[in-house]
Amino acid sequence: MRHIVLIVGTLTGGPIAGGSILVVLNIYRLLLGGIGVFPSLIGSVLLFIVLLLTYKFFNRTSNRIKITLAIIYSLTYGFSWIPFFLSKVTNKTDYIPHIIVYELCSMLGTILILYLLHILQTQVRLQNELINAEKFHLIGEMAASISHEIRNPLTSTKGFLQLLQSDTCTEQERKLYIDIAINGIEQANHVLTDYLTFAKPSIEKEQTLQLEEELLHALSLITPLANLTNVRTHYIKQSTSFFIAGEKQKLNQCLLNILKNCIEAMPKGGDLYFTLVPDHKHIQLYIKDTGVGMDSEQVKRLGSPFYSTKEKGTGLGMMVVFSVVQAMNGKIDIISEKGIGTTFLLTFPLIQKT
What are the tens digits of pLDDT across the range 10-34? Predict the structure, then answer.
């Protein structure tokens, strides 16, 4: 039955796979010993040569012909042993039933292995097709959501710029329209930045970053938004400096997205807490809000493609957060409760300042 493995392996795997099987089988046969060692070695080498001459045709043909060819090879190899075997025994007719059973088992074994292999190959192919289909679906959704997120502020900006052309526009109105137009452009730029960061989250230029400085910088940028919604920020300062490896711009984008989400979760105001806690070889950053919170299902889906807890959100911001943290060899945990608030726990490996 060893020849079945050689036949199937060579026909489906090619010369390298078949050659490896041939070597292993022949070494095993040499170790077994017996009078049939050299005929077995010669037979397997000849079979391997025939298989090499036909394996390309085998892979191009239909499944029915594949099975037929494999059966022919298996039976031919089996029958080639019959004269040698019968020459070594007496009462030759007594062994005919054994020979028939052997050939039947050889044929059925070949069919079974090829059938199982075909099923496995089909499953792998279908799985790859499903993955590709899902990728194209996600690309379509991403393109649609980004287009929507960019078109809205640009349309608004265009409208207010057109109003500036009016001769009746007062200086106060002109200033208001310019501010709104600038905000619209900044919003579109934020969406594009998120998209580019998500598309390429890997750390291209690794830097030594002081986490406290990066956190305070992100906090200074988000403070105007916090003041508008009456959100109070509380930072529990640490006396020790903690350094991590990462890329400044991407870490900043990650922190801004989390802070923005926390503030938007407190439309009626609230408190936003920050704490840095060293943990052996890691540093943990706690960001806690007193907002609307999330249930367990929402927490589980957070960071999934295009899932957002906001009615008009795309989920791109949290996708960026997860991808950047992962690229920095970090970990993110989220604890939340409806009506109580949400805590983001970011864990990064500590490094020595160079």
Answer: 878 788 888 888 888 778 778 877 6
Q: Specify the number of domains making up the chain.
A: 3
Domain co-membership, 227 together with 338: yes
- Identify residue 73 by its one-letter amino acid code: Y
CA 207-211-214 angle, 5° bins: 85
Q: Which of the 8 DSSP states describes residue 340?
A: T
At a CB cut-off of 8 Å and minimum separation 6, what does 115 contact? 67
Q: Is the pTM of this model over 0.85?
A: no
Per residue in 46-88, pLDDT tens? 878 888 888 788 778 887 888 888 878 777 776 676 666 666 6
CATH of the domain at 166: 1.10.287.130
Residues 145, 149, 152, 155, CA torsion sign: negative
What is the 8-class DSSP label of residue 92?
G
What percentage of the chain has pLDDT greater than the value 90? Answer: 12
**Average pLDDT value for the chain:** 80
Using CA atoms, how far residue 254 sits from 175, 197, 218, 243, 273, in Å, is 32, 9, 9, 17, 17
Q: How far is CA 241 from CA 76, 124, 134, 238, in A?
A: 77, 50, 44, 8
The CATH number of residue 275's host domain is: 3.30.565.10
Considering the domain architecture, whether residues 223 and 344 belong to the same structural domain is answered as yes
Same structural domain for residues 60 and 102? yes
- Is 242 within 8 Å of 276 (Cβ atoms)? yes
Range(s) of the domain holding residue 341: 207-349
Among 88, 107, 129, residue at a domain's last position: 129
| pLDDT of res. 344 | 94
Confirm whether 158 is domain-assigned: yes
Question: Phi and psi of 234, rounded to 5°?
Answer: -135, 115
User: What residues contact residue 156 under an 8 Å CB cut-off, 6+ apart?
Assistant: 180, 181, 184
| 134 within some domain | no
Which two tokens mark 113?
């292995």
Instruction: Answer yes or no: do 152 and 75 share one domain.
Output: no
